[in-house]
Amino acid sequence: MRRLGSVQRKMPCVFVTEVKEEPSTKREHQTFKVLATETVSHALDADIYSAIPTEKVDGTCYITTYKGQPYLWARLDRKPNTLAEKRFKNFLHSKQNSKDFFKNVEEDFKPVPECWIPAKEIEQLNGNMPDENGHIPGWVPVEKNNKQYCWHSSVVNYEFEIALVLKLHPDDSGLLEITAVPLSDLLEQTLELIGANINGNPYGLGSKKHLLQLLIPHGAFQIRNLPPLKHSDLLSWFEGCREGKIEGIVWHCNDGCLIKVHRHHLGLCWPIPDTYMNSKLVIINMNLNKHDYAFDCLFNHFSKIDHQKFSRLKDIILHE
């Protein structure tokens, strides 16, 4: 599977979508819903039937070089300033192409940190141009003592250049594994941050006393038994199958394109009480040498329960 090194290649819905003038249940302050119709979109052009379907997990990160070593980067979109945002919303209601709106990015957009970089493969025209939402996708490095990204920094150790990763066990697809992975093994990959205080914590990780975050590489959880590519069949699969208790599906196409369908596209709720991810056993395989980790860091806590197995992610308890 090709790993995509940024928020790159558009991710169209597998179905043609329509906009309803009612508040979104996915994005706060969005006054409309995007729902899938019965018609399959141009996803067929990307040969979706030969693509690899994977579980969609929300909360994007990126790993690339910074200060001469592998570093975790957090998603930070460059957004229009207040005046440009108002003009942009009026422009969208005129049904015109959003790409025709922004003429001067430097004047219309809020400043970003000097270390900010734009996402790869976003369209370039007189500089970094916005996407259809009026944002310029990009990244900022996660510094160790940056309180704004404290949840991100908890899953990496730059001294030993490792990251806390959740993935399938290499010898058992029915078993999840939490392990320490060298950052160098994750270079130019995008990952998802899940856990306490991340997007409502739909997987129930940690507690108020012991906050817990993990990284999931994109495409880590392949879906094996998808129904036919029909609106009604996918709707039934999301509603009635254990494997369908997920946020959505992302198809990884051979040409690098990503095609997705979210539960919200089908009028379904997210988050849900019992996710498919929480139906699997999980084992801790840190395999770390005895390093002098900070007493309160996640690496230290996981080292204390190394090789233990839990019935689900929600049951993981970190010791003092």
From TrEMBL:
Its EC number is 6.5.1.3. Residues 57-144 form the DIX domain. GO terms for biological process: response to reactive oxygen species; RNA repair; Wnt signaling pathway. It is an enzyme of class 6 (ligase). It catalyses: ATP + (ribonucleotide)n-3'-hydroxyl + 5'-phospho-(ribonucleotide)m = (ribonucleotide)n+m + AMP + diphosphate. It comes from the Eukaryota. GO terms for molecular function: ATP binding; RNA ligase (ATP) activity. Keywords: ATP-binding, Ligase, Nucleotide-binding, RNA repair, Wnt signaling pathway. Coiled coil: none annotated. Its cofactor is Mn(2+); Mg(2+). Functions as an RNA ligase, in vitro. The ligation reaction entails three nucleotidyl transfer steps. In the first step, the RNA ligase reacts with ATP in the absence of nucleic acid to form a covalent ligase-AMP intermediate and release pyrophosphate. In step 2, the ligase-AMP binds to the nucleic acid and transfers the adenylate to the 5'-PO4 terminus to form an adenylylated intermediate. In step 3, the RNA ligase directs the attack of the 3'-OH on the 5'-phosphoanhydride linkage, resulting in a repaired 3'-5' phosphodiester and release of AMP. This is RNA ligase 1. It comes from Myotis lucifugus.
